[in-house]
Design a protein that fits this description.
By secondary structure, the protein is an alpha+beta fold. It is 42% helix and 11% strand.
Length: 431
């Protein structure tokens, strides 16, 4: 599976001044030429505690103690809240500089819309973001249900499932692994499985001492996928990818949360590339479940429709939606994103707290244009809790969409982007 750039390509990407290519540091000439009219943002929540606790298999597969989290399982941590506040402050500085809002702006219901999935980590992320974004604005964070419950807008569930759909989805998933299909996907990251088990010290774990039959799962590369109506795409129990994904997720969060990187690695001195290999297990898990094109068109449909409506709302200036990495993965795939891997991140697709930012501009010719970027805090910004500013912006990575051309200033015609949204909606209708 071709997931990682070559070392040379990665070094090239790391050297690129990405923030100079997109929203972070646009020239005055660009600002004079294009007026920013609206921004629609889809965000992943910031740092949370793991979805399961130390009493689960996650705790039993290692003799080491996981970090003592500052929040209950699956909830936003204090560190995650502080980092999201910093991101909100950066967005305020960016949009004030772009001329969209004056400093200390008090928004109306017409020009600002903030909505979060009804999970604690999503609501809290939105609250922290808005406190930095508009500290005196009295911003209301909208969510439909009492926490913590999945909102259908953000729930990446399959709403259309037929035998034909399942056959096509499995064909597309298997294609990710080449001739060997799903087994090939697993074999490509077998070294990653070996690394994470070494860091976990599985041979000395409670699971090993009790000779738990689940240990055999770590050698099973034939991951089974469940595609059922009104449920998220899921992996059945009993495979390396299913079981080690939980450990990958917890390690990534622990790396962000724990200032001592050696302690985060259970006493092992891991390189950034080692951490990226551990994170790739979770990235692969996400890709298999949510980035097959027909699956993405299915699960992303509610968000595609909502974002499209917001983008066309005549009075709206800023929309902020807070969901999950599965939302970002599926929406980007449904829109036809070109293959990419993010620099200065161990999660190379949808890092913690990352945001898909769609900007709408009016050009000097009176026509409307659009730009798409992924905005996220770099590894050092996350770990060192660096304050963000126009002088020290987050990473801003330009997103390209298959088949669409940008103008000389790196912008799409808005009409072309709107057509792409309509194509994504039509793909759902065709299922």
């Amino acid at each position: 599976m071709k997931r990682l750039f070559s070392a040379a390509m990665l070094l090239t990407l790391l050297a690129l001044p990405l923030t100079g290519l997109a929203q972070a540091q646009r020239s005055q000439e660009f600002k004079d030429k294009y007026k920013l009219k609206e921004a629609v943002v889809l965000s992943r929540h910031n740092i949370r505690s793991p979805l399961s606790d130390s009493k689960s298999d996650l705790g039993r597969m290692t003799p080491h103690q996981w970090t003592k989290w500052s929040a209950g399982k699956s909830e936003l941590t204090s560190r995650g809240g502080a980092l999201e506040t910093m991101m909100g402050q950066y967005f305020r500085k960016w949009l004030v500089d772009a001329g969209m809002f004056p400093e200390n702006y008090v928004p109306t219901a017409d020009d600002l819309n903030v909505i979060a999935n009804s999970m604690q980590r999503c609501i809290a992320t939105a609250q922290y973001f808005t406190s930095g974004f508009m500290p005196v604005g009295g911003v209301t964070v909208n969510h439909r249900y009492t926490p913590s419950k999945m909102d259908p807008l953000f729930n990446p569930q399959l709403t259309k499932v037929t035998p034909e759909f399942v056959a096509t989805a499995m064909e597309q998933i298997n294609a990710m692994g080449g001739k060997k299909g799903i087994v090939g996907i697993n074999e490509a990251i077998a070294p990653n499985y070996a690394l994470i088990q070494e860091v976990l010290d599985v041979p000395n774990s409670p699971m090993a001492k009790e000779n738990d039959p689940k240990l055999k799962d770590f050698k099973n590369y034939n991951t089974e996928i469940a595609l059922e109506k009104w449920a998220e795409p899921a992996m059945k129990k009993g495979s390396a990818l299913k079981d080690l994904n939980a450990a990958s997720d917890a390690f990534i969060l622990q790396y962000y949360e724990e200032p001592d990187s050696i302690k985060a690695g259970f006493g092992k001195k891991l390189s950034r590339e080692d951490w990226a290999k551990i994170a790739q297990i979770k990235d692969t898990y996400q890709d298999m479940l949510f980035t097959a094109p027909i699956v993405a068109a299915n699960v992303a449909n509610p968000l595609i429709q909502y974002m499209y409506d917001e983008l066309r709302s005549p009075d709206r200036k800023f929309t902020f939606l807070v969901g999950h990495d599965s939302n970002l993965s599926s929406v980007l795939t449904a829109l036809g994103v070109e293959e990419y891997e993010l620099p200065n991140a161990i999660e190379r697709k949808t890092p913690i707290g990352s945001k898909l930012v769609i900007e709408k501009f009016v050009g000097p010719d009176g026509k409307e244009y659009a730009d798409l970027n992924l905005v996220y805090q770099s590894i050092d910004q996350l770990r060192n809790m660096e304050l963000l500013s126009l002088e020290n912006p987050p990473m801003v990575y330009p997103i390209s969409l298959k088949g669409l051309k940008k103008n000389a200033d790196g912008l799409y015609n808005l009409a072309d982007l709107e057509n792409r949204f309509e194509e994504a909606l039509a793909a759902y209708d065709a299922i």
